[in-house]
Amino acid sequence: MDTAIALNGFIAALFVLFSLGVIVQRQMLSTLYLFMLHAVALTASAIVLGFALGSVHLFWVAAITFTTKVIAVPLVLRYSAGSEIYERREVDQVLTIPTSVLIAAVLALIAWIVAQPLVQAITDRPFAAMNLPTGLIAVFFGAFTVAVRREAVAQLMGILVMESGAFFASIAIVNELSIIAEVAAAVDVPIAALVIGLLIRSIHHVTGMTRVGLLAELKERR
Amino acid sequence: MQPLARFIAINLIQIAFLLAFAPLLEGVLARLEEIIQGKHGPSIFQPYYDLWKLFGKDEIVSRESTWIFRFAPIVHFAMPIFVVMLIPALTDYPLFLAFAGDMIAVGFLFSASGFFVALAAMDTGNVYGPIGASRTRMVGFLAEPVYMVAFFALSFVANSTIPYTVNASWALSWASMLQPAHLLVFVAFLLLVLADEKRLPVDNPGGKAETAMIGHSNNLEYSGTGAALMKWGSAMKFMAVLIVFLNVILTPWGLAATPHWGDVLMAIPKVLGKMLIFLIVLAVIETTLAKLRLFRISEFLASAFVICIFAMGVRLVGVG
How many CA atoms lie within 13 A of A115 on its CB side? Predict the structure, then answer.
């Protein structure tokens, strides 16, 4: 059990690092790769927890996460917004990157402090002490990515990071959720990616770009 | 032999180890990069030939320069030798001078040498020297707070900033190696090593254009013995930083556990083996990444800073 907790802590640190990477990385394709690594870390954590708690459901969570987030989302995005991801280099930011990483540090500290009372309330879950704050950090980072990026594809990554963070926290607390609920939650992810991807495609078709942060100005100019 | 005399002797072996193998590391790294790029490349002993050649040449010193220009190579050459007496280069138990200074003192010694090198670069009136010196200072003042926070994070984990104690606290068990704080400090320190040693993506060590240089234009004006001391000093600084990175932070194993001569001498190939593995990783990093634009370096180091803050935070809230 101690080894599993140590291993899970290591994976949690990787999870936070990859979430930070989604905020920091300027290039679209690297953002996508970092998001995939982030999902791989979630999968690994689910596998470790599955072994440690002897829960078959967590292996299902791992399998579903891997197929949806590491395989399906990149494929769907390649189909729906391929040119935006594979041909563009840099993503616009509202804030400069040093400012946004400093805000990210503050968000992480807030997440740790906010999670403390919850962690103390559920002492019977051995992994919650690590997973709950970490998942909350990823939720905050995802929300921050959505706020700070001017680019629709990168904002989609932010939404998916939030979703992964919620999963990361919940697998440590509720590990006996029925599979049908997990499948339902997981299928939403590629569908959301598909819908937003198609939206991105039509925005690109109409305006010639996907920098949605600039679209507000177009309206005001008239 | 008396324990104290033996410790002093082991310290001298560490200095000899640093002096002897530092140019080899540069040669191996250059050769590895050439191999990855599909070239043949010079022999791994090329830095030794270069040093030999430079020591045999006449030295030309500008009439406009002051004593700083002649003093800087000596400081640059001497500081890594002081540093290696403070850090666990070959042994995992503290030696003669181990408690004379901690990792912050190591940072101070390196900054002292960096200070003199930057002054010397500006001293001669060469146009490229001041550009390189001010850029080096820019990277330096961005990197130093990160070093400080990294050392604080380490001291939270190990309750000490003495490198021997930090090394012992990681080497305790697998669980302590897997601590989240360990991973985060390691990642941040890797970014710092790249920035501080002027490797890609911060600076291009193989670059030949003076206008794009950061750290490598500082010693353009040196010739003969001065150039040899600068070159050897830089190689030793690189090796000392690698020793801190590998023996203290990343892989605290393979060091001599007893003061027996056999153990101490057996540690040399083990430490060199770890360095070879790291150099392969470094060569891959250097051949796959492009150089960052100058004002992107702050982003690179800001990420390292925030990762260190995470490492500290995860210790402070007591989950890692």
Answer: 29
Q: Is there a contact between B183 and A129 if contact means CB atoms under 8 Å apart?
A: no
Residue B187 at interface with chain A, using a CB cutoff of 8 Å: yes
CA distance B114 to chain A (A): 25
Nearest CA in chain B to A115: B317
Say whether residue B294 is in contact with chain A using an 8 A CB cutoff.
no
CB atoms within 10 A of CB B127: 11
Listed ranges A89-98, A189-198, B208-217, B286-295; the one with the highest mean pLDDT: B286-295
**Structure ipTM over 0.85, yes or no:** no
Distance CA B226, CA A108 (A): 49
What confidence tens digit (pLDDT) does each residue in B257-277 have? 888 888 888 889 999 999 999
| Least CB–CB distance from A97: residue in B180, B302, B307 | B302
- A contacts of B187 (beta carbons < 8 Å): 17
Looking at residue B291, what DSSP letter applies?
P
Q: How confident is the model at residue B160 (pLDDT cuts 50, 70, 90)?
A: confident
Decide: B94 and B3 in contact? Cβ < 8 Å. no
Q: Compute the average pLDDT of residues B163-188.
A: 82
A118 to chain B, minimum CA–CA distance in Å? 13
Domain ranges of chain A: 2-221
- The Cα B39–Cα A79 span in angstroms is 39
CA nearest neighbour of A6 among B250, B252, B173: B173
Name the residue ranges covered by the structural domains of chain B.
3-316
